[in-house]
Design a protein that fits this description.
- The structure holds three protein chains of three kinds.
- Chain A contains 13 helices and two strands, in the order αααββαααααααααα.
- By secondary structure, chain A is mostly helical.
- Chain A has two domains: 67 residues; 256 residues, MetI-like (MetI-like fold, Orthogonal Bundle).
- Chain A has a two-stranded antiparallel ribbon with strand order 1-2.
- In chain A, strand 1 and strand 2 form a beta hairpin.
- The longest helix of chain A has 41 residues.
- Chain A is flat, with a radius of gyration of 25 Å.
- By secondary structure, chain B is α/β, with parallel strands linked by helices.
- Chain B has two domains: 148 residues, Periplasmic binding protein-like II (D-Maltodextrin-Binding Protein, domain 2); 148 residues, Periplasmic binding protein-like II (D-Maltodextrin-Binding Protein, domain 2, 3-Layer(aba) Sandwich).
- In chain B, the strands form two sheets. In chain B, strands 1, 2, 3, 4, 6, 7, 8, 9, 12 and 13 form a ten-stranded mixed beta sheet that branches.
- The termini of chain B are far apart.
- Chain C is mostly helical.
- Chain C has two domains: 43 residues; 169 residues, Orthogonal Bundle (MetI-like fold).
- Helices cover 75% and strands 0% of the residues of chain C.
- Chain C contains eleven helices and no strands.
- Chain C starts with a helix and ends in an 8-residue tail after the last helix.
- Classes of the chains: A mainly alpha, B alpha/beta, C mainly alpha.
- The interface between B and C is medium-sized, with 38 and 30 residues.
Chain lengths: 327, 328, 286
């Protein structure tokens, strides 16, 4: 990490030193110099990523050695005895993300279709802009809304309703206090819907108008037209949008930390509190007691990093394939 | 354009000269009184600015050990392991006394009475309803509803938790063997909130909740407090006086007063009381450190008069004197 | 039979349309509610003190977030001054040279960096700056945010420079300019408005981030402009106040949320306006 800063210093130092003379060089030499500098700066960005991974692994190493495979198999998070496992947190992240995507994905696709195909162009632009603006709202604002509006709403209205009609499912048993997995999942679904919707809209826009008109001309209803000429051919694009939404939900921190209840446990009930990987880091990192606790939190960060890495690479390859096939 | 930006940034960076900035972090337990102190102190000494972030005692200890702050604050004394990691000797300076108060949010129930064992059972999730027979027996007159109990506890490393767990471990064998003592625990039930602030807010907003917070938070937020049965067998409500009583017997020649004072046997003493400490690195060459010492002198003399208004108990005169002696 | 089939298809069509309308309502109404709720709460809580005062001691009514608003500007400004030049240069490298191992690695790293949860970046900045300097600081927060801004700027720069038509580059080279002058003074300069759009979008994203600041720039009760001391920021201050029990602090959290939204969405809208008006400098390539 020191070498990085010295590296940067030498680069900027040599730049300013030679600046006066650079203009006197032969154009070819100038080009070579600028090209080399750009390469070095680009390598610096790559280095940031490498440093990030190295430091995460290095800091997390003690816990991986100390806990071994227990770090991924036990349902325990015990700072007193310094026994840590990421499993309950992985579970928390997975379940909230899963529910959020299940809710958000179909709705987002339908909204994208609605905005693109049903609304008049002017209205579509307006609604589209609104949805994109929501995607930019900081997560802390959603968290605030979650604590003061969504939490009480779930406690007073939604949870009693679910208990009454679906109470036989273990998912909807136990007391609900408005803070827990369900609240966190719903807030996540509200947050990722705009993301998925806007990407889907972009994907749907690439369908040539001629194909749509052709389908209608052959006597297809509008529904059939949308299904056959828009949704089916865009399938991989849609998947890419959903995966990107998933990535956002996995890493979402503040809004979740404010409403999930921060209890690292695995419970069947959606009303029960839980903790996600991101939320536990936010809550415990600055105030962890022991080195092992810090290592465990970095370990969790590492798992989260790897998970989002996989998701993003999958999304990248899907979108890439999609772009290639659509060209 | 970029040059202008650089100049502006430099200017911003340097205009802080002439101002001594001291950074501290730690316990949320004494935050109300500390923030009052720092603001009063600044109005008297305009060039000293003490920034205190209430992140929890665990954080206070850790950040002092990592030397990311000039001083720390905690209500849970550092343990042997913490001390072994310290780059300097770090002394505990008791500043005020406070109480950890169980607080509840149950409609039409005020002045609930509990004993230590029952409290432990609730926080272990063994008593889950407000109208549990044990609770009814302790409170024959209260109208306890047939509702679920929501346990609210700290999500961060907390001295308040440490004091609370220390008390529960002292009075309940069951708690001691299954949960134990510590600033962060493996909680059997409940939801975690951040800081005394967070627990207070969650209890205040959630019907059916029980939590534990510092007295000052409980009173200023008008939460319903629980009277606890003390060692002498009395049910005592938490007040400034009943906390002071708990410290009466305390005596420590090193002037650190890190021994636990929970479950005091004194008559009229509230059983979950504790000293809260500033953590002061013993660095004599450091400017900020000198300023902190000056501040402590003020806090232990003139500053003590603010304690009662914020529902903390001032240090016993004898203790304050002893600590000041030691600082010289 | 045929008629029945047609009816069935028409029915499906109608049901589907109803589903679309329903879905749109299910999304737009709650989203609208969030905004409306924050707006109403925020406007009712906002007052002049909010912009001119720093916090009062715990539990006392009054005070404001002047220190946090300025803190946010400083952190974001600093982060931008790290990330924007670097991002534009790297983006230009990708679009103008763009081949070979380093370019491929850079593209991959940019994608990976975009996807890293901001809290993980916070850990990185803590380990990289806070631990060695032994101090929570503005610098650490700015570093964290700059890593968030960087990949967005690189990506948008690459995309925008690629829109510059080939003949413009060729014209530059034909004038006998060295390639680098052509890149910096024709391609980049000519795409200014497009680049600004990307930069503003990146900055608006960073300005609302809370998680990476929690343990880097930390917090401060006072107005501070020092780069090596903890500093308050709007999102962290909102978080602290939002989870507190004090009514007046909760009120200020709402006011803060409103200011933050106006700031972030305002930047967002500005960048869109620039994009619409200028059509990316050289005009979109068809």
């Amino acid at each position: 990490m020191k070498s990085e800063s010295t590296l940067k210093n030498t680069i900027s130092g040599s730049l300013s030193q030679r600046e006066a003379s650079v203009f006197n060089w032969a154009p070819q030499k100038q080009d070579q110099f600028v090209f080399a500098s750009m390469r070095v700066l680009s390598s610096f960005v790559i280095l940031i990523l490498v440093a990030l991974m190295v430091m995460l692994i290095k800091t997390a190493w003690p816990v991986l050695v100390d806990q071994g495979t227990n770090f991924f198999t036990q349902s325990i998070w015990n700072p007193v005895d310094e026994e840590f496992s990421a499993l309950p947190l992985i579970y928390g992240t997975m379940i909230t993300t899963f529910i959020a995507v299940i809710i958000a994905a179909p709705i987002s696709i339908m909204v994208a279709l609605f905005v693109n195909e049903v609304l008049t162009p002017k209205l579509a632009k307006l609604v589209g802009l609104f949805v994109e603006m929501i995607a930019a709202v900081p997560s802390i604002v959603f968290g605030l809304w979650g604590i003061f509006y969504l939490g009480p709403f779930i406690k007073n209205t939604l949870a009693p309703f679910l208990k009454e009609h679906f109470g036989y499912l273990p998912l909807f048993q136990g007391p609900s206090f408005g803070i827990g997995v369900l609240t966190a999942s719903l807030i996540l679904s509200v947050m990722i819907t705009p993301t998925i919707t806007s990407i889907c809209r972009e994907v749907f826009k690439t369908v040539p108008a001629m194909r749509k008109e052709g389908a209608l001309g052959l006597g297809a209803t509008k529904f059939e037209m949308m299904l056959l000429t828009i949704v089916r051919p865009s399938f991989s694009g849609i998947v890419g949008a959903i995966v990107l939404g998933t990535g956002r939900a996995l890493g979402e921190t503040m809004a979740v930390a404010m409403v999930i209840g921060n209890q690292p446990q695995i419970k069947a009930s959606l009303f029960a509190p839980a903790a996600t990987m991101a939320s536990i880091i936010a809550n415990e990192y600055a105030e962890a007691d022991s080195e092992m606790h810090i290592a465990a939190l970095c370990g969790v960060g590492l798992v989260l990093f790897v998970l989002t890495l996989i998701v993003n690479l999958v999304a990248r390859s899907i979108v890439w394939n999609y772009n290639r096939s659509s060209k | 354009m970029k040059n202008i930006l650089a100049v502006v940034l430099l200017g911003l960076g340097f205009n802080a000269f002439g101002m001594t900035k001291i950074n501290g972090a730690g316990a949320t337990f004494p935050y109300p009184i500390y923030s009052k102190w720092f603001s009063e102190y600044k109005s008297k000494n305009a060039e000293i600015e003490i920034n205190y972030q209430s992140i929890g005692s665990g954080g206070g200890i850790r950040q002092v050990l990592k030397q990311t702050v000039d001083f720390g604050a905690t209500d849970a004394p550092m343990n042997a392991k913490d001390k072994s990691e310290a780059p300097y000797k770090i002394s505990h300076i008791p500043t005020v006394l406070g109480a950890v108060v169980p607080v509840i949010n149950v409609k039409a129930v005020n002045g609930l009475k509990l004993d230590g064992e029952t409290l432990a059972q609730i926080f272990m999730g063994k008593i889950t309803k407000w109208n549990h027979p044990t609770l009814l027996k302790l409170n024959p007159k209260a109208k306890l509803p047939n509702e679920d109990i929501l346990v609210v506890r700290r999500a961060d490393g907390s001295g308040t938790t440490s004091v609370f767990a220390d008390y529960l471990s002292t009075v309940s064998k069951d708690w001691e063997s299954t949960v134990g003592r510590g600033k962060s625990l493996q909680w059997p039930v409940g939801i975690g909130s951040k800081g005394n602030e967070g627990v207070t807010a969650t209890v205040k907003q959630t019907e059916g909740a029980i939590g534990y917070v510092e007295l000052s938070y409980a009173i200023t937020n008008k939460l319903s407090m629980v009277a606890m049965k003390n060692k002498a067998g009395q049910f005592v409500s938490p007040t400034v006086e009943s906390i002071s009583k708990a410290a009466e017997g305390a005596n420590d020649p090193t002037a650190e007063y890190t021994a636990s004072i929970v479950d005091s046997s004194a008559k009229g003493a509230f059983p979950i009381a504790a000293f809260t400490y500033l953590l002061l690195p013993e660095k004599n060459d450091d400017m900020n450190n000198k300023e902190i010492r000056k501040f402590i002198k003020w806090a232990l003399t003139d500053g003590q008069k603010f304690a009662k208004d914020l529902y903390y108990s001032p240090l016993p005169k004898k203790v304050a004197k002893q600590v000041l002696e030691k600082l010289k | 039979m045929r008629e029945w089939h047609l009816k069935y298809r028409k029915l499906k069509n109608i049901v589907f349309h109803m589903a679309l309308v329903f879905a749109a309502c299910a999304v737009i109404i709650p989203l609208f509610m969030v905004i409306q709720y924050v707006m109403i709460k925020g406007f009712n809580s906002l007052n002049w003190d909010f912009f001119t005062q720093i916090p009062k001691p715990v539990g006392e009514v009054g005070g404001g977030m002047k220190h946090a608003i300025i803190g946010t500007f400083i952190i974001v400004g600093l982060a931008g001054s790290f990330a924007i030049p670097l991002g534009i240069i790297c983006g230009a490298y990708l679009s103008e040279y763009g081949r070979g191992k380093i370019a491929a690695l850079l593209r991959l790293s940019t994608d990976v960096l975009t996807g890293i949860p901001s809290i993980v970046i916070g850990i990185f900045a803590y380990l990289l700056v806070v631990v060695p300097l032994k101090q929570f600081s503005t610098l650490a927060g700015a570093l964290a945010l700059s890593i968030i801004i960087l990949p967005v700027v690189i990506r948008s720069t690459e995309e925008i420079l690629k829109l510059v038509p080939r003949h413009i580059r060729e014209a530059g080279l034909a004038l006998g300019l060295p390639r680098w002058k052509m890149i910096f003074f024709i391609v980049i300069k000519g795409s200014r408005s497009g680049l600004i759009t990307g930069v503003i979008l990146a900055i608006s994203r960073a300005a609302g981030e809370t998680a990476p600041l929690l343990f880097t720039s930390f917090g401060n009760m006072y107005y501070s402009t020092s780069l090596t001391n903890p500093i308050a920021s709007l999102p962290v201050q909102i978080y602290t106040y939002a989870i507190s029990p004090f009514d007046d602090w909760q009120r200020q959290a709402w006011a803060g949320a409103l200011v933050l939204i106006i700031l972030v969405l305002g930047l967002n809208l500005i960048s869109r306006l620039i994009m619409n008006r200028q059509q990316l400098g050289f005009g979109r390539r068809k």
